Automatic annotation (TrEMBL), chains A, B:
CDD domains: Trans_IPPS_HT. Gene3D superfamilies: Farnesyl Diphosphate Synthase. It holds the Pfam family polyprenyl_synt. Keywords: Magnesium, Metal-binding, Transferase. Its cofactor is Mg(2+). This is Polyprenyl synthetase family protein. Belongs to the FPP/GGPP synthase family. The keyword Ligase does not apply.
Length: 322, 322
């Protein structure tokens, strides 16, 4: 996938050369800091790949892709405050390194930069891109709100969970592809199809995340296996387990949510998950969304050859072990 | 000023009919709440008046004006968190009524709505409007950062203070006029002139605010006279006093900053202000910016008759007692 590397280089170059001012440094240095922590830059890469798929010039998707990437980073700053997260990509989060105030304000400023990049697009597509971007980022906000609401609720259904990860994670992957298609002048149907491909890959990706968090090979995983269980996070696995558990298992799961012995908490919870077969059910749900993604791609008006790079990315995301 | 009332009605109608969704309510109800607290809607009124000044249709400035008004409200939500403010327009601030998390996220969502309104403009002016809006709202972020930086600094100069209020308050008044001029197809010079008019009126307005906070008629003022002194706020008056004070007065001002007897703190500080004549100096600085505003308006290519309504607004703002 040489194309992807070339795209990533181009994106990194743009991000390094972002005209972020120096003063007031309290506003701008947290932005430079966060963007400097790296990241896969998956979203802008997807925008460029989508433009290429539809016969457009990938470089014309760069501004939209960057807008999405910058919005993504903005949302990380604010989400990390809301989630009290100390680390991001192994480094202190902005609000930990500076302060919550700084996190709020420099996040806002980064949001402005995101719209600024979006506005660099030629006037032909500007209306459509702006509309699409606003709709999608609003959905991301809704997803974050649902996620926060879930923390204090004990009646979250699997459907609600899927809807939350769709909004919080998948919509932006879909949007990256969608906006690449728009600047490549794809048909309205194709824009919708490539969005749907991205959205479903995103949902499958997040379900894979839920599974890996508990069942990954600890030697390869790079972070603590069972982190979600320790944080009492309402993942697909836990919600499904509560749905299927009998009274005894429900009681046990409740007790385990307050267990302080970390090893025991993870092991005993996993035992119940295994009894109920929730890992397999998560895998089935993941495969279902992956299949939906492939169906959408099937319908896209482009040659099989042209579709290969994006299909490879999806396949890679599904088969990852970390 | 019948026109202004008509504009305000139109603006209120738009704000009431804003298509804010219901769910998730944690995200959207704080927005409805804040917008429902009212406000003078000065910024969108200025946009409409500016469009009319330049022979445009005031209604065509509505979307830009609303974008500015919504951004202003967004910034109030986030600023209130950063400033730990309990009340806004006499009612609990969003983060007090809900939570900081809610304030951060629903603020973000309101920012998206602001850009959404901006994007409703016809494609002819869209690029210019987007660019102007992004530049101006970034300046507002810079102003808020400077204001926060000032809290922990003891070497803030008068020039820095004027720059801070320019960015934090005045730029947005200028931007409202500027964007009204853009949609009315005013010349580039006139756009710059009307912006400068608004910016200088804004600075004069803020200096008037500093003066009124201490010297207003308590019966008319509606809030505690001397609030800035009690909060040790670095206003023009205080900064100028420190600049002019002799050693004894400096020492006294330092001591007063820690005085707990509120009445004594206000009275004794005012005594030093009066000895140093800082009220008069603030008035002179205010008049200077008002004169600059009038000079800019003088240069605007429009009849004296057409300029009258905006000049009346400026005059009203300068001569207010509350």
């Amino acid at each position: 996938m040489q194309g992807i590397d070339a795209y990533k280089q181009l994106i990194e170059k743009e991000i390094t050369e972002l005209k972020i001012k120096d003063e007031p440094s309290g506003l701008y240095s947290p932005i430079t800091y966060l963007l400097g922590l790296g990241g896969k830059r998956m979203r802008p890469i997807l925008s460029m790949m989508s433009a290429e798929l539809f016969g457009g010039n990938p470089k014309e998707a760069l501004n939209s892709g960057l807008a999405i990437e910058l919005f993504h980073n903005f949302s990380l700053i604010h989400d990390d405050i809301m989630d009290n997260a100390p680390l991001r990509r192994g480094y202190p989060t902005v609000h930990t390194k500076w302060s919550e105030k700084t996190g709020i304000l420099s996040g806002d400023a980064l949001f402005v930069v995101a719209y600024h990049y979006l506005a660099q697009n030629t006037v032909t597509y500007l209306n459509t891109l702006l509309h699409t971007f606003s709709v999608r980022v609003m959905e991301v906000c809704e997803g974050q709100q649902m996620d926060m609401d879930f923390e204090t609720r004990d009646d979250v259904s699997i459907d609600e969970y899927i809807e939350m990860i769709r909004l919080k994670t998948s919509v932006l992957l879909g949007a990256a592809l969608e906006m690449g298609a728009i600047v490549a002048d794809a048909s309205r149907d194709d824009v919708q199809r490539i969005y749907s491909f991205g959205e479903n890959v995103g949902i499958a990706f997040q379900l894979q995340d839920d599974i890996l968090d508990l069942y990954a090979d600890p030697d390869k995983f790079g972070k603590q296996v069972g982190g979600d269980i320790l944080a009492n996070k309402k993942t697909f696995l836990l919600l499904k387990a509560f749905e299927l558990a009998d009274n005894d298992q429900q009681k046990k799961l409740q007790e385990l949510s307050e267990e302080v012995d970390e090893q025991m908490k993870v092991e005993e919870t996993r035992k119940i998950f295994d009894q109920l077969g929730v890992r397999e059910l998560a895998r089935i749900e993941m495969e279902r969304h992956y299949a939906l993604a492939l169906e959408s791609m099937e319908l896209v008006t482009a040659s099989v050859e042209k579709k290969k790079p994006l299909l490879k990315v999806a396949e890679y995301l599904m088969n990852r072990e970390v």
